[in-house]
Amino acid sequence: MMKRRLILRFTLQLTIAVVLSLLIVAAGIIWITQRYAEINISIDFSSIGLERLVESSKLTKDGIKFDPKLLEQVKLNNGWLQSLDEDGNVEQSFNTPSDVPLNYAPGEMISYWTGERPFPYHLYLWIQEKQGRLFTVVYGIKDETGPLLETAVAQGQAAADGRLQLPKTAEERLLALGGYAQVLNYTGAELASFNKPADAIDQYSVQEMALRTMYNARYGYRMHVQYVPETGMTWIVAVPNAMKTAQSETSWLPPEAKVLLIAISVMLLSLLLVFFLLSLWNARRFGSPMLHMLAWLDSLGKGIYTEPVDRKGIPRSRDQQGGWRSRYRVFSDVLHSIERLSVTLLRDRELREQNRSLREEWISGITHDLKTPLSSIQGYAHMLSEERYEWSADEVRQFSRTMLEKSGHMDTLINDLAMTYRISAGIQPPEGEVLELNEWLRKSVEQAASHPSFGEQRVSFVPSGKEMYIKLHAPWLNRIVMNLTANALLHNPPGTQLTVSVAEDDHNGGIAITFADDGKGMDEQTAARLFDRYYRGIDSMAMVEGTGLGMAIAKDLAEAMGGRITVDTSPGQGTVIRLYWPAAG
């Protein structure tokens, strides 16, 4: 059960950690994508931002409404916007200069767009249908390179030192824009340049020229080129994108690399934070219970059999209602085992203390029981050995009978001691013999009842209605009968009647021997300890024969021969002791 709970718990934690990691990575990728899109829009709004501007727009009753963030980017790029209806009229405009028309004829717009007619702005068109209406968005940006290129071709001169000489106004404008100019020979090699940056090349192939002209966002410059057939020279004017100019002033790191570095750093820190928090959670959920269990086991080793408690005196694994706390619930099986171990160790310690106390009492009692007959024997021996007295033959025989009686009692005590320690050592019964219990028990009960101290007519035997056979070691069974009979007659008032019977055990299919008396009975505590060694369930001031081992020996002998013994009693109601054995095969 605990194994399944631990597997489920750790699988759940691993799943949560993987899901959180994937979410962090996904969020990082989304953020990188958005930032890259913003960078690309800032660099080349005409090819990327214009599409997003139209897609994110909403059609209202007042016309089309654009995303404010994208409109702000238009302004940062020094551009302007116009929204045209199907007739070429301007419905909305943003940051539009005063020299831009407010309506366009069909041919007029196309001539401006293709460059067939002079126009001070580069135009970019995006046409899209929204809610059944066809909208045209015009994005314009100041044409800085065209006039500069015309001036350079018309008035520029390549000096011998490789410097391109331009009119002063053109040079000032290029410097203000951060741009540069180049003139190339027929093979594409540079003849002269003005304000050329360190990352610009001085040898162009057809492919390199085409790429740098078409994909200005990749190289960071908007490049315009004009070839003069008469001289075979190619003139180049390049102006940096607005985003490149701003970043070159604030950071040496490319914007894409900066975004990637930030994203990777944040993702790594987030993953570290997730695993750190997961480790703390595991330490609380699993480390605390384990430390508590180790502390509990350490307390058991020191003889403290109660669970360690918190400041409020409540066991650490339990809540105020007595149930398991959430982080201890997965270890409930182990905690139950430790709890049972604590109870067992505490009970064993109490039993050891009780047994030690009983053993001391028993040793004191058995010492007294041995000294009493020994004192009588010694007394009569001294009397017989005294030369001053002459004893008659009858007196000598009387003394001898008393000495024999006392020595027999001592022999019984010694035999009981020997028997109980042999049983404790695990001695096995000798090979048994098949007995017919009706006849055998009748003789054994008569022998047990013939003891002089029991009186007469106090023991009766009730045989079974049919022959009962069982295979047992007869001397041991006889010892059981003697002990149970003596216990019933010695520890009950005079006149107590004992009935011994044998019958089939209806519940288990074996044989039951019953010893039932009508004596004073026993209380619950005495009945529970009736078969304990050294235990005498009587007043300590009472004088009674016995060793305190008879009932324990009877139980041990019965169990050694494969049987069991039970007691049913209550004060004033007598006592019934039953022996159960399986029938002979």
From TrEMBL:
It catalyses: ATP + protein L-histidine = ADP + protein N-phospho-L-histidine. The keyword Membrane applies. Residues 365-585 form the Histidine kinase domain. InterPro entries: BphY/WalK/GraS-like (IPR050351), HATPase_C_sf (IPR036890), HATPase_dom (IPR003594), His_kinase_dom (IPR005467), HisK_dim/P_dom (IPR003661), HisK_dim/P_sf (IPR036097), Sig_transdc_His_kin-like_C (IPR004358). SMART domains: HATPase_c, HisKA. This is histidine kinase. Pfam families: HATPase_c (PF02518), HisKA (PF00512). GO terms for molecular function: ATP binding; phosphorelay response regulator activity; phosphorelay sensor kinase activity; protein kinase activator activity. Its EC number is 2.7.13.3. Keywords: ATP-binding, Kinase, Membrane, Nucleotide-binding, Phosphoprotein, Transferase, Transmembrane, Transmembrane helix, Two-component regulatory system. It is found in: Membrane. One of its GO terms (biological process) is osmosensory signaling via phosphorelay pathway. It comes from the Bacteria. SUPFAM superfamilies: ATPase domain of HSP90 chaperone/DNA topoisomerase II/histidine kinase, Homodimeric domain of signal transducing histidine kinase. The chain crosses the membrane at residues 12-32, 259-281.
